[in-house]
Amino acid sequence: MTAIALVAMLSTIAIPNIVAVLPKQRLGESAREILSILHFAKIAAIKENSNVVVNFNPGSSECMVFVDDGEGGGASEDGLRNGQERILKRYAMPSGVNLLSPSFGNVLSFNNRGFSDSTGDISVQNSRGTRQIRVLPSGHCKIL
Q1: Is the Cα dihedral 40, 65, 25, 128 positive or negative?
Q2: Are 133 and 38 in contact (CB under 8 A)?
Q3: What are 37-53's pLDDT values in tens digits?
């Protein structure tokens, strides 16, 4: 009986703390996922020997990675998905986390050598703060 009372007291202390930590964890998870997507796009561009574009949509808090090769009648290397250009990956932010407009615009392209065409920051935000992912001209990306 004492053990049950002890578990009940500990859970009343621990559960609110766990709930308070969840938004911070989601923010960090989202920043790491964006970083992972950027690394994926860079490697895919080298592997495909073609431009690969990451298209950010802050309005719906989503991003999409596609090969910008003009397949299926689209124009190649225009930064737009047209024709039948292959989608390699999609990601939607978890509930409560927002994707803010990147400082370089909504389109980031990696060439067949892995270099990015733009530099700047991508920000994700929720009630616990903001995390930024920086993109360098070399194609290197890091969380600040």
Answers
A1: positive
A2: yes
A3: 999 999 999 999 999 99
Beta strand 129-135 pairing with 120-126: antiparallel
Residue 59: how many CB atoms within 10 A of its CB?
10
Give the chain's domain count. Answer: 1
Tell which residue, 52, 126, 132, has the closest CA to residue 86. 52
Rounded CA-CA distance 144/142 in Å is 6
8-state DSSP, 15: H
For residue range 52-67, what is the model confidence (pLDDT) as tens digits? 999 999 989 999 999 9
CATH number at residue 82: 3.55.40.10
Strand 120-126 to strand 98-99: parallel, antiparallel, or no bridges (unpaired)?
A: antiparallel
Q: State the residue range of the domain holding 79.
A: 2-143
pTM given for the model: 0.84
H or E segment at 41? Answer: helix 2-48
